[in-house]
Amino acid sequence: MTLVVGILCTDGIVMAADSASSILAANVKELTDRKIVACQQQHLLFGASGHVGFIDKIHSSISKITSQTKDLEKFRKELQQKFAEEHRESRKNHVPFPQQPNDKPPQADCIVAGYLDKKPFLYNFDVDATDSDCTLSKFAAVGSGTPFAHTLFLPHRSNLLNINLDAGKIIANRIICDAISVTAYGLALPVHVYYMDTQAHIKMADSAEMSQINITCEAWRRMESDALGNALTQMKTPTITVANVDGLPSMQEKKADK
Predict the structure, then answer these.
(1) pTM listed for this prediction
(2) What does the pLDDT average to over 238-257?
(3) What is the domain partition of the chain in residue ranges?
(4) Would you say 122 and 13 are in contact if contact means Cβ atoms under 8 Å apart?
(5) Least confident window among 27-31, 181-185, 219-223, 251-255
(6) What pLDDT does 250 receive?
(7) Are 48 and 109 in contact (CB under 8 A)?
(8) Residue 257, Cβ density class (10 Å: 0-12 exposed, 13-18 middle, ≥19 buried)
(9) Beta-strand (E) ranges in the chain?
(10) Confidence band (pLDDT; 50, 70, 90) for 192?
(11) Cβ 22 vs Cβ 1: under 8 Å
(12) Distance CA 230, CA 1 (A)
């Protein structure tokens, strides 16, 4: 499994990923920090799930984009063309083997996010090279862990319009960490968090920043637990009345007899 998420914030973009690369044996995982790549020259973040070698080819193809267009739709179509070309070449050159996953051509799901002429974009490119514009929804996820990401992010959708970069880093980290905690296998720590400000300056959260993010996430979990506990203690137990059935006395009638 893999999980990469992207969040569009009011003052930047956050992208986070787990570190699992593949399962070598039972409870043995190979780790990677290559699921997210900062394309500094193109002012974008690239995150992907799929065949590692094929992801490297897509990243190389995107890195060669030299378009000077300031039109987001034209840029999106240019990206889509790059993805489609790489997938077509993958299918054309693939020599299938009986053993999975080598029976199918290499493929990848990708998230591309960044700024073009100071306008933000967040795109999701699927394995069939179709794309989704996630700029308005402000959230994207790829990988087999995607259902976990959308479920964990659901409570925060209503507040997303007001999420700044610092809050986005905390939420992205929380989503990945919680997904890791509930999956049986396939996702792994550590979490890698990249972020870009509105000037398209890209940084990766270092160990000190990640430590502070994790401390904040743990405090958030405790606050949720405390809030739920307080809410449950304040709830009144409802009175349940069982109606008469075939002449049998109701629960209230039984209490009255006693």
Answers:
(1) 0.85
(2) 55
(3) 4-220
(4) yes
(5) 251-255
(6) 53
(7) yes
(8) exposed
(9) 4-9, 12-17, 20-25, 28-31, 36-39, 44-50, 108-116, 119-125, 131-133, 139-142, 192-197, 202-204
(10) very high
(11) no
(12) 36
* pLDDT tens sequence across 108-142: 999 999 999 899 999 999 987 789 999 999 999 99
Tokens of 71: 């039109």
Query: Residue 73 has which token pair?
Result: 């739709």
Is the distance from CB of 189 to CB of 17 less than 8 angstroms?
no
b/e per residue 76-99 (b: at least 16 CB within 10 A)? beebbebbeebbeebeeeeeeeee
Look up tokens 């240019």; give the residue: 78
Provide CB contacts within 8 A for 223, sequence distance 6+.
Answer: none
Residue type (1 letter), 233: T
The residues, ordered by sequence, that sit 6+ positions from 9 with a Cβ below 8 Å of its Cβ are 138, 163, 164, 165, 167, 168
What is the CATH class of 4-220?
alpha beta
Q: Which of 158, 160, 54 lies closest to 108 in space, CA to CA?
A: 54
Distinct helix (H) and strand (E) counts, the chain = 6, 12
Residue type, 228: L
In whole angstroms, give the CA distance from residue 103 to residue 98.
5
Cβ proximity of 242 and 251 under 8 Å:
yes
